[in-house]
Write a structure and sequence with these properties.
Layout (H helix, E strand, L loop, with lengths): L3 H6 L4 H29 L3 H30 L14 H5 L1 H5 L1 H16 L1
Helix pairs in contact: 2-3, 2-6
Amino acid sequence: MPSERELQISPVVQESLVHNTRTLYNLQSLTASLFGVSAGILGLESYAGFLFYLVFSLLAATLVYALRVAPTSLAAGKPLLDTSRYFRGAYDVWAGGLMNGFAGFVLTWTLFYGLVRA
């Protein structure tokens, strides 16, 4: 939790946090659908499809973190895994996408699996 002095120097604006969270949610939903299309075209079934989703969702979260959060955290002298400046918590970045996009993944996975295998 940032101290009062840190908040006075660089305040956290709630509107920015909401915008960042909404943008991240949209990105996670879009990538989950694209992962579903990929899993369906590849013909993955059962655990292989869910493992595909888990691995690529975590890869997408790592890319978002590495390209957006980590460089600015390091430049500001913050700890490397500190996401509180841009999001409500680390859960939004790392695990939020797993549940946010799961329904879209399953929907597009089954749709494209059925289209390819039919």
